[in-house]
Amino acid sequence: MTAPVDSLPPGFLAALTEYVAIPSDSRSATPETMRAAAEWLAGRLSWAAGRVEETDGFPVVRGEWLGAPGAPTVLVYGHYDVQPTGDLAEWHTAPFELVVDGPVLRGRGVTDDKGPVLLVLAMAEALLAERGGLPLNVKFLLEGEEEIGSPHLPGYVRAHADELAADLVISADGAMWRPGEPSISIASKGLVALDIEVTGAAEDLHSGRYGGTVANPVHALATVLASLHAADGSVAVPGFAEGVAELSPQRRAEIDAVPFDDEEYRVAVGVPELFGEAGYSTLARLWERPTLEVNGITAGGKYTVIPHRAVGHVSCRLVGQQDPERVVAAITAHVTALAVPGVEVAVRADPGWVPAYRIEPDHPAVLAARDALAEVYPGHPVLLAVIAGTLPATTLFESALGAKTLFFSFATADEKHHAPNEFMRISRIGEGMRAWAALWDRLATTTEGTR
Question: Peptidase M20 dimerisation domain location, by residue (predicted)?
Fold first, then answer.
């Protein structure tokens, strides 16, 4: 599944080069930079009345082509913002310069989510040129805050729900599971993030003059964080797993049937051994089990003080029917009940909680997507996978628009999303265009059950 750069549609490489060059990092870019990215994208949607519309944060890009009376309507979702570059010394090439590197394109945002969105727009333009119309009605909603949790998207979507109404949302964001097989993700995990803050003295203290006479917040935080898990890797917070169903024998068998090499995975991630919740395979833990991870600790430094404050940054990926609010309450109750002398402990949850999302494997949209992928990848079984990460918009669309979201991205999970040297396989662009066209043709004939 490789393709040379000259297999790309005319003008695609030049357009993607311009798009990647806009450093639309939603964590640090100026409003002017983010607007420039939105306006560039709106320009690519001129055939669909593309326009930039305001939110309480960075703007969204909207568009619609409604020239198929009686056909279903789909809402295409994606985002134009990207992650920070990270350490520039780890990049082999300049992050905001698109580079052709053999069978791949490199640059920040090329696979998450600029390339996957641009291929949909290129496909739609090609269909219009070839057929004079599209097989169904299409609306576009492309946001600029996905990488920071979409904080202003809910307010915008609810305020414009009538305009955005659709039978189905199709997300160009996400990723296929592996490069060697076509896949559709039928679920994504929810997300809760929080800080556990431990405070001691009013200010940092000299570790010689005061050591041994007061509690050290870093020591206390280490005790608190260690209490969150049992020795077997399971989460030890009472009530954390409420809403998580035990895996059925059938689901375990389905997961066990997916080719997965633990040793290959271990080598790829670079650890001496794999570790996780006992009683589950690596893939079952990745796809079906909730997690509680300590992402970082902020305290003191390499100098001789007793820090007056230590903060543990924690995130939880949720599954099943876990309620984000109850998860926060369970962690708060567990942490504040611990006997940690000499300090005060508080839990401060970040905004933007997201529950887990799922679309049933027999949903008409999933069936249409499987058929479309089978057409583009003949002889390759289509895997039903799970996104272990979180896409905040999915549950929003279900609650505000009453529409399910189908993940149909042609990024691949190994393409260094969020990391230095992000890339996208050139072959995925042409394959993606053909598959999106095949999907739209199939959805156009789906007369019931799409919603």
Answer: 186-341
Per residue in 422-445, pLDDT tens? 999 999 999 999 999 999 999 999
251 within some domain: no
Give the domain extent around 115.
Answer: 5-188+357-444
Whether residue 110 contacts residue 424, with contact meaning beta carbons closer than 8 Å, is answered with yes
Overall number of domains in the chain: 2
Is residue 79 included in any domain, yes or no? yes
CATH at 197: 3.30.70.360
Residue range 310-348, pLDDT digits in tens: 999 999 999 999 999 999 999 999 999 999 999 999 999
Query: Could you give the CA distance from residue 232 to residue 338 in angstroms, rounded to a whole number?
Result: 20
Q: Tell whether 262 is covered by a domain.
A: no
Q: What span, in angstroms and rounded, lies between the C-alpha atoms of 302 and 434?
A: 55
pLDDT at 1: 47
* Tens digits of residue pLDDT in 400-416: 999 999 999 999 999 99
- Rounded Cα distance, 154 and 144, in Å: 13
DSSP per position, 216-231: -HHHHHHHHHHTTB-T
